């Protein structure tokens, strides 16, 4: 079972309003009616809506921070091809920490803001939460990043309740729990857990090596039983670790994440990318100055993974890929790519386009 129980029951009957829920910030929020004009503080949450409002995940969205366009253009191309009206939705232009042009957003007459829990401090500091409260616009916090293993399925269940899509939320979370339990049953039998260094957005900086602590990719590594080096070294959620320190800590596995970006030095995972382009970039990255001194890089236990699984309602696929990277013999038959396509085809109306989600040294 996941580390915490569901916040709300996942019944399949139609939601009754007024509705009181408890969100991922453990705050009680009351909704007078079913929301029809939604703000997405983090535009990547449209992929959660794709599980619920499957025919059109943008149908309620009146304003958003279009992070797919900024950080994952292949996914944005996929979304706007399927739902062209998405290009007309107000892009608030606020940063990932919560700053927002409130006047333009309020003009859209929203009746709900969906926000990521990591953004709460910035939303508070910039006055967004106070303004929303004053205007009686509920704010519901979800979370896939700070505590991914505990909160992802709960967040989908929460949104299913809020948006009157409980049955569809339960369909997905049943699948999510089933895949999670299958991973955990295998990991429970492993006595010696591997030490892991993970480098998110590898190649995005000239300096090596950026990493995550207990949250984000660090949290996903820990969810599959890995000892995340960043968790033991970083005082905060992310930061840089000296190459010499990584070498000294003797990781068993080295993992890099990436997605297609304007910076061509980053691993170009995602939709409609060439596996050959991934391989070329992967080779450049593992041959950066000093990296061959890291034992798993030198010995062929270096891996690549699609970056956006770290803040994604489909992060169970990221966990499956990590499980294969950390325990290749135990998870030899696990097929994360097939499970990803199963999510897309069973639980969404997203186009099932070609996608590259991972890479391994042994593929060379």
How would you explain this protein's 3D organization?
This protein is α/β, with parallel strands linked by helices. It has two domains: 19-180, Nitrogenase molybdenum iron protein domain (Rossmann fold), CATH 3.40.50.1980; 191-363, 3-Layer(aba) Sandwich (Rossmann fold), CATH 3.40.50.1980. It has 15 helices and 16 strands. The strands form five sheets. A five-stranded parallel beta sheet has the order 5-4-3-6-7. The protein has a five-stranded mixed beta sheet with strand order 10-8-12-14-16, sandwiched between helices. Strand 3 (38-40), helix 1 and strand 4 (61-64) form a beta-alpha-beta unit. Helix 7 runs antiparallel to helix 8, helix 8 (166-187) runs parallel beside helix 14 (315-326) and helix 14 runs antiparallel to helix 15 (336-347). The radius of gyration is 20 Å and the shape is globular. The model is unreliable at 1-11 (pLDDT under 50).
